[in-house]
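Lab notes, practical 5.
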Amino acid sequence: MITTIIVDDERLAREGLKSLLKDMPDIQIVAEAENVDEALDLIEKFKPQLVFLDIQMPEKNGFELLEELIETPAVIFTTAYDEYALKAFEVNALDYLLKPIEKERLLEAVAKAKKQIEELKLDRLRNKLMPHERVFLRDGDKCWYIPLSDIRLIESAGNYAKIHFDKYQPLIHRTLNSLDERLSDELFFRANRQQIINLNYLEKIEPFFNSGFLFYMKDGSKIEVSRRQAVKFKELRSL
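Output from the prediction step:
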């Protein structure tokens, strides 16, 4: 079953999509939202594998929702406007369906979602790195083979990631999301959209703006933890 959330400010549009999806037994609709803030809470709660996402909504649009997500599910945009198609694929949308949605196009999009979700599951199983492992890094003509536990911080740099260990900060051609999929939750924590920290280098925690945290690291740096990630941290690490 593919757990799914529908996000659209128009009730009739949500009902129409649910009607089309009811004949697809692999799709399990766990929630629906009519605005971005509601959707963010529901995505955090249910952690769906797939989101059908409208673009034009009051206050915040569908692209702004994706900007606030740290762990992004498969996304199929549903909209009455074709001018956003290029931007949709730039943010790695799985498909782009124009309203009124045709059943045949919906079937195609759902088939893509099934394939991507299954491939992601297999990749996670194959590529998960354990805390005791060593990893190979290369930046230009420099190479390292270091214990994973020596990495204290990983930062996003567009389609690259900056790896902080010892006195070095090499750039590797990996996104933060792809690295987050591979790293062990025992050792690493996604503090925000831009940074993953090694919990062994965490020295002190203080409450911070908007119910977030401020992490003080052993090297003297400070890391801001978003409200949603602060909730996740407490769920994972509290007694």
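Observations recorded by the TA: The chain has two domains: 2-127, 134-237. The mean pLDDT is 92.
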